[in-house]
Amino acid sequence: MHESCGVFGVYAPNEDVARLTFFGLFALQHRGQESAGIATTDGKRLQVYAKMGLVSQVFSEDSLSQLTGDIAIGHNRYSTRGSSRVTNVQPIVVGKGSNTIAIAHNGNIINAEHLCAELSDQGYTFKTSTDTEVIANLILSSPEKEWVNKIRYAMHRLQGVYSLVIMTNHTLFAVRDPFGVRPLCLGAIDNGWVVASESCALDHIGASFVREIEPGEIVSINENGVDSYREEVGRRALCIFEYIYFARPDSVINGRLLYPARQAMGAGLVEEYPVDADLVMGVPDSATAAGAGYAFKSGIPLGEGLIRNRYVGRTFIEPDQRIRDLGVKLKFNPLPQMLDGKRVVVIDDSIVRGTTTPEVVRLLKKAGAKEVHMRICAPPLRYPCFFGVDMATYRELIAAHKTIAEVRDFIGADSLGYLSIDGLIKAVALPKNIFCMACFTGDYPIPVQLEMEKLALETMPPGPSK
């Protein structure tokens, strides 16, 4: 499973807003590693610098020094709509003259194709194949005059998921969809304000957490201060995988620090699937906290059986066939002295396609593990996500077509246990009705087409120039 994107925005006159955004994106790097970008404004013009690569690869002292102004927005991308190529890098600048905005987006718009065709017929042209540009042109197409009303007009037309940072020459906007699927929070810094996908990004730049942006809310930040515009919303649908995997364990979402929530998931697995064993290990890094929780609750010693190479996949150099054939060994290296003759409980966050987990089990057994008992912090993933997570298609999801016993045999584990939905909600310690758990249940917060194409907008004909 791949991360969703990270967004960041800052309004701070007389501060180096590009540098603040750089470090905010650095803290949000886990949410997307394909590309990074920053846009700023000095009140007269919008400028953007964005490229393929990690934050540390994209920006230099020279590029940051060129990004001047009082307002900045930034984006880390993992592509969920539109291919991974430089023309799709965000933030993007759309419009002309005073009717120009810069925008960055975390989420997925499920009616983007329809809106793109409609806007093309009206004369709007598209330079990217992302739904982010659809959102931007929809805002610009509004007959309303005030920016807040233009954004609200677009929100009424959009179907899907979006946490947005939007910048005009004078104002920073933070926008969250009515379901609140993706997180977004507000922080305060000397001389200004900050918005970010996760609270950990506030910590990294010395900003204080103020509150979360509410579902359906538009927050406007400029020289007049902070204004909030809200409408009544219905069902809430925060993605449960923010708690299981996506967000950093030092982030706070809905008032809950994620690290103890993940520890509680591990403890819940002990209650539901106890086993006699000699060693507990969490698959690094996403299941480390859950592994600690399992070990504490069970009394089985906690140890490390795998060391993770955190930089695998962070290069544009393609491996040759010999390296490619090593597969999971590029990502993990086992510790035979810790594993030899041991019955090992392995905690992981999820099993999606069932491609990596069998390799992990084989790696551990080859290193000497006598038994490998897999315990998974998420219930079986049986339905695809259409809301900004590049998970898998229905055909690719292993739990959609195999029983738990069949999955166990396929991955080669001695036993397999998935945390139940009730156990997951108990661990998170928040009301069940605020979450989207469609990937487990098929109960999507809005109707979806069961086979949506990630690259569909790449085949849309461009409209005439406008």
| Largest sheet entry | 7 strands, antiparallel
Give the number of helices. 16
Helix content: 25-40%
Average pLDDT: 91
Structural class: alpha+beta
Architecture of the largest domain, CATH level 2?
A: 4-Layer Sandwich
Low-confidence stretches: 461-466
SS strand fraction: 15-25%
Q: Please state how the strands of the largest beta sheet are arranged side by side.
A: 3-2-4-1-10-9-11
Structure write-up:
The protein has two domains: 6-237 and 455-459, Glutamine Phosphoribosylpyrophosphate, subunit 1, domain 1; 257-430, Rossmann fold. The strands form six sheets. A seven-stranded antiparallel β-sheet has the order 3-2-4-1-10-9-11. The chain has a six-stranded antiparallel β-sheet with strand order 5-6-7-8-12-13. It has a four-stranded parallel β-sheet with strand order 17-20-21-22, with helices on both faces. 28% of the residues lie in helices and 25% in strands. Residues 461-466 have low confidence and may be disordered. Helix 9 packs across helix 10 and helix 9 runs antiparallel to helix 15. It has 466 residues and is of the alpha+beta class.
Task: Tell me the layout of helices and strands.
Elements: E1 6-11, H1 17-27, E2 35-41, E3 46-52, H2 55-58, H3 61-66, E4 71-77, E5 92-96, E6 99-109, H4 112-121, H5 131-140, H6 147-157, E7 160-167, E8 172-176, E9 185-189, E10 192-196, H7 199-204, E11 208-212, E12 218-222, E13 225-229, E14 238-239, H8 241-246, E15 252-253, E16 256-257, H9 258-272, E17 279-282, H10 288-298, E18 306-308, H11 321-325, E19 332-334, H12 336-339, E20 343-348, H13 356-366, E21 371-376, H14 404-411, E22 415-418, H15 421-428, E23 435-436, H16 438-441
Helix pairs in contact: 4-5, 5-6, 9-10, 9-15
